[in-house]
Amino acid sequence: MNLLGTHHVAIIASDYAASKRFYTEVLGLEVIDENHRPERDSWKLDLRLPDGTGIELFSFPGAPARPSRPEAQGLRHLCFRVADVAAAKADLEAKGIAVEDIRTDPYTGRRFTFFPDPDALPLELYEEPGP
User: Fold this and answer.
1) In the chain, which ranges are E strands?
2) Rounded to two decimals, what is the model's pTM?
3) Per-residue pLDDT of the chain (131 residues; tens, 9 = 90+)
4) What domains does the chain contain, in order, with CATH numbers?
């Protein structure tokens, strides 16, 4: 097997409109497509990051809540690469998003921080300056 990269990450939102606003307006992700599936009473929003990675945002009525944060089985967190974690943190805070203090990874020496999406899904910003 020769994996080429991540194609997409799927997220089920408890409040589709709030999560749509968060991922498009706060994080600035590009909308590729949006579809309503009446047979499931479900919306699906396809988003894209600048590197081509996709995020699929779903609404599913009655989906169970995440049992705990962040150590529940399953997806622990979603991490976004940024060139300047302090600037990204300041941008999020200016939009009213609570962001944890910036930490430094003791193994890589890179800076990172966490913030929640509207469903308290842990999202990480990880600093990887460009070439």
Assistant:
1) 8-13, 30-37, 42-48, 54-59, 78-82, 103-104, 111-116, 122-127
2) 0.79
3) 565 677 788 888 889 999 999 999 999 999 999 999 898 899 999 999 999 999 989 898 888 877 766 566 666 788 998 989 999 999 999 999 999 999 998 888 899 999 999 988 889 999 986 65
4) 1-62 (3.10.180.10), 70-131 (3.10.180.10)
